[in-house]
Amino acid sequence: MSRFHWLLLTSVAFVAQAASGAMAQQAAETKLEAIVAKGDQEAGGPVEGYVAKTSRTASKTGTPLLETQQSVSVITRDQIEAQGAQTVGEALNYTPGVLAQPFGADPRFDAPIIRGFDGRQAQFLNGLRMMRTAGAPAVEIYGLENIDVLRGPASVMYGQGNPGGIINMISKRPIFENFGEVGMQAGTYETFGGFFDFGGTLGEDADVAYRLTGLGKNAGAQTDELDNDRYFIAPAVTWQPDEDTKLTILASVQHDNPSTPSGLPPQYTLNATDFRLPRDFYVGDETFDRSSRTLSNLGYELEHRLNETWLFRQNFRYSDFDWDYQSLGMSSLGLAADGRTLRRNATFQDEALNTVNIDNNLLGEFSTGDVDHKLLAGLDYRYFDNNVRTRFFQATPLDLRSPRHGGPIRLISRTLDTTVDSDLSQLGIYVQDELALGGWRATLGVRQDWTRSSGTSLNGLTRVSRSLDQDDHELTGRAGLSYVFDNGIAPYVSYSTSFEPVIGAGPDGTPFEPTSGEQVELGVKYEPAGWNGFFSAAVYDLKQQNVLRTIAGISSQVGEVNVRGLELEGVASITQGLDLRAAYTYTDARISAGADDGNRVENVPEHMASLWANYTFQEDTALEGVGVGAGVRYVGQRYGNSANTFNLDSIVLADFALSYKKDGYKASLNVQSLFDKDYVASCSSFGCYYGDGRTIMGKLTYSW
Fold it and tell me: How many other CB atoms are found less than 10 A from the CB of residue 33?
């Protein structure tokens, strides 16, 4: 019997035992009232402590997590602050099923792996997808209220995407009370900056509230000479003229200059013997490297109650992204024959991207006999205008044992010159019904998508233009069933599917089919009645088919990936000032067809575990106002490539936090990777990348 089947049988036994015990307690019950989230937490809104009870991400309806038949984790603002997370990747470090920073720190974007699949293209802001062909740009975490992670296929709600899941970042919003904070921060890599966040209402009994959030910092990175400066401003306004209508306008502008930490040869990192390059080694050149990008967003969220049954909602966002970028990095050709001279690649990339997202839906709550319904019907549309020119050159090499920087940089030969001018559109119609009968909860959803890609890709070396015109359509669905017992235990089972278009054609000219994903998940959730906590356990079997694989230079859809796993999560915020988050993940991710058949999927460890605890001393104690936090993270052995030739050791990392708060003032100190572990995070044909070393960040904040 395989380990997965043993885990599956163990979990089923656990669920059955919990269910039978709870069933005996309420055998006489015929009706279970709908569970209301404690503290009247609005889905996606501020949460006190670490324990969120609702989320709109899984179902778009704000259904309690206990009644949601899929794995969802919510990282709250309080947890983000306590851990001192500076990026979304850092905030996800204690989340099950997620390898948050598989390639080490990269200021350009966050690249988490969710249930074995690349999450760069699975990032959403306020329920609307962020579009970019090479991975969504990093979003300033100070502007976020919560981060939701939905694990497993999500196409029935969001359309095209990989089956691993999605990351939904929730922006800070106005609230109808006056508040504010202003502060400054300083830390490792010459980081220094300030931030502010304030808002309130326009007069007493006003129906308009506002919020203004901003940040500015100058910063470097672990690699010498790299920049990570950022300027961020996010105004927001909410107009609520009556209890039936609410309009929130959300805007933001983020300007930064992130540079690439270059890969390094495995001979001088992972497999080094007599000489090993340090973590801060710089492959580029300060006279050549440059980066400048701006991400602007403008959107709104409208809610209007039509009557006692129906609520209309419309979410809209327009995004504009511009990036001028050039850098030097390790070439895939690697070392020269002398074993010490690194061949370098010069990259030039100019991007001009525009995205329009709009999601309309009607939510109706009604009953048919003894069955309560929460019926959602929606139509969404996405348009993505993609204009990118990318050029690669062989450039002046670098002697790794005696490096000389300062230019001049010579471009030896052009190896790639591609100009992409394309449009992508997606139209989706979806229907979902959430049913409740006594303790039973069921979810049924179906969606039809139509996607269209048009445009050209021009090869500047051959002057050959390739058409990107392609139409696809797909039907996806989801079904879930659970039973919510009086004691707060809810076992569930669910089935869900996904799809993602693959642009291009095979050797015979036939367009590629969309990849398809499907998952079966079995789990149990527990929400204790007497204290503030939430616990979950899930096993799943996840497949993706029609995966593109390249063999001998020929691309065809002969690949399949099968991921099976177990995830355990516990979150608690105890009134005495103790906050906890614990997680364990087992993942068996295998390539099950095509090239590298039978090998493990790259960068996916079999085992991960984490524990974070934070304690704040209470009033009338000797250390009133002092907060102490500590965490440990384990990432198991993994392979850097699908051929499984780069073997990466397991690692254990520790984090630490200390804070003091009094009379509106708060001083905090956060240390990531406390013991400064030196390790290789990933390796591929483009080199090896070090994981983050110890970083220290101090903040001083005044709140009112």
Answer: 9
Long-range contacts of 617-626 (CB under 8 A, 24+ apart): 617/577, 618/576, 618/577, 625/660, 625/661, 625/662, 626/658, 626/659, 626/660
Q: Which residues contact 637 (CB under 8 A, 6 or more apart)?
A: 605, 606, 647, 648, 649, 650
Alpha carbon 594 to its chain centroid, in Å, reads 28
- What predicted TM-score, i.e. pTM, was given to this entire model? 0.92
Residue 129 and residue 122: Cα distance in Å, rounded?
Answer: 7
Provide the CB-side half-sphere exposure for 473 (13 A, CA).
5
206 has a pLDDT exceeding 70: yes
Is residue 283 within 8 A of residue 313, CB to CB? The reply is no
- The answer to whether the beta carbons of residues 252 and 237 sit under 8 Å apart is no
Q: How far is CA 297 from each of CA 77, 111, 128, 355, rounded to the nearest angstrom? A: 21, 21, 11, 9
pLDDT in tens, 222-245: 999 999 999 999 999 999 999 999
In 408-532, DSSP assigns E strands to 411-437, 440-459, 464-467, 470-483, 489-500, 515-526
Cross-sheet strand order for the sheet of 113-114: 98-99, 113-114, 117-118
Contact (Cβ atoms closer than 8 angstroms) between residue 512 and residue 500? no
Two structure tokens written together for 594: 């095509």
pLDDT band at residue 28, thresholds of 50, 70 and 90? very low
Write out the two tokens for 30: 């015929």
pLDDT at 550: 65
Q: Is residue 640 helix, strand or coil?
A: coil
Burial class (CB in 10 A: 0-12, 13-18, 19+), 444: middle
Choice among 187-191, 199-203, 656-660 with the minimum mean pLDDT: 199-203
Beta carbons of 301 and 247 less than 8 angstroms apart: yes
ω into 403 cis (within 30 of 0): no
DSSP calls for 151-182: ES--HHHH-S--TTEEEEEEE----SS-EEEE
For the segment 574-622, what is each residue's pLDDT rounded down to a tens digit? 878 999 999 999 999 999 887 788 999 999 999 999 999 999 998 888 8
CA distances from 704 to 78, 208, 278, 667 (A): 17, 20, 45, 15
Which pair of tokens denotes residue 353? 């991207």
Euclidean distance between CA atoms 238 and 302, whole angstroms: 10
- Give me the residue label for tokens 């984490």: 610
The strand pairing partners of 416, in sequence order, are: 392
Over the stretch 435-457, which tens digit does the pLDDT of each residue have? Answer: 999 999 999 999 999 999 999 99
- Pairing relationship of beta strands 464-467 and 179-187 according to DSSP bridges: unpaired
Residue type (1 letter), 23: M
**Which amino acid makes up residue 338?**
D
For range 661-688, the mean pLDDT? 94
CA distances to 114, 146, 158, 314, 674 from 166, rounded to whole Å, are 8, 14, 9, 21, 30
651 Cβ neighbours under 8 A, 6+ residues apart = 634, 635, 677, 679, 691
- Residue 94: which region, alpha, beta or left (left: phi > 0; alpha: psi -120 to 50)? alpha
CB 533 within 8 A of CB 570: yes
How many whole angstroms separate alpha carbon 165 and alpha carbon 535?
Answer: 20
Residue range 370-406, pLDDT digits in tens? 999 999 999 999 999 999 999 999 999 999 999 999 9
**CA atoms of 153 and 497, how far apart (whole Å):** 5
Burial class (CB in 10 A: 0-12, 13-18, 19+), 2: exposed
Q: Give the whole-angstrom CA distance, residue 690 versus residue 103.
A: 8
